[in-house]
Amino acid sequence: MPVEGPTLVRRQLGRRLRALREAARKTAADVEYVASRSKLWRIEEGKSPVRVADVKELARIYGADDATIDALAALALGTTGRGWWEDFGDVLPHDLRLYVDLEASADEVKTFHPDVVDGLLQTSDYARAVEIGSGLDVDEATVDRVVAMRMQRQRVVLDGERPGRVTAVLGAGALARQVGSRRIMAEQIRHLRRLSDRVEIRVLPWDAGAHPAMIGQFTIFEFESPDDPSVLYLETYVGARYVDTAPQVDHQRSIFATIHERSTPLEEHAP
Asked: Which pLDDT band, with edges at 50, 70 and 90, does 160 fall under?
């Protein structure tokens, strides 16, 4: 699957430029007249759009050939694209903008939520109840916008995609906790069952006992392209962390494999 979306293109371009710089034994000081240290860091980390002229000049400093320079320049053009989420920039936290780009572009998404149904799988009523229940002084208009954004996120990721691309393991508590009314929960569970032909949904039962994912929720974004390594997302109350170092991603991948093995398919789960 090709890399899609401006965030993914920025990451790929940044990684290639860093590899060229390191191969040429150049430091940030060597290119300061083209890009300051902070600007170079943003480019190499895929944090911002990149000017074609800057990419070409950096590539020339690194001794790249014309074909490589042209390829990098083409990638630079893709870093200024508009993500679907920009229409919801007023309600989408900055640290989640990368998340929705990764989610939409990943070849596979593996996610674990112990106490709440994953946002990709929520009904609009459940999503509304989550926002009202967990928000502080959230006005109705903001809740409407958040719910609309979540529904659009589902359309982007799930509609027309191949089955098995998303694997979600839910803790038993996610289905046992009444979010909103009994009607809302009953409809949410029916919705999960309807999705099971497109998404692999599993439940980690109470009798699974202690398990290695007890620290909390996480998501792994898997990519087939060697130019775009897998990314681990960890969420906390004080912000999000994105990790793409292989040992840490591999460790979390093994944790997911363990809870996946101990979980049961949604249709076999007995509350």
From this structure: low
Give the chain's domain count: 2
| 17/10 Cα distance (integer angstroms) | 11
Alpha helices per DSSP H over 24-168? 37-44, 52-61, 66-78, 94-105, 124-134, 140-158
Question: Could you tell me which of 66, 37, 70 has the C-alpha nearest to residue 52?
Answer: 70
Q: Is the pLDDT of residue 161 over 60?
A: no
Residues 252 and 218: beta-carbon distance below 8 Å? yes
Domain identity same for 74 and 97: no
The one-letter code for the residue type at 265 is P
Helix (H) or strand (E) holding 194: helix 182-195
Does 21 have pLDDT greater than 90?
Answer: yes
Query: Do both 63 and 128 map to the same domain?
Result: no
> Tens digit of pLDDT for each residue in 99-122?
888 888 788 999 999 999 999 999
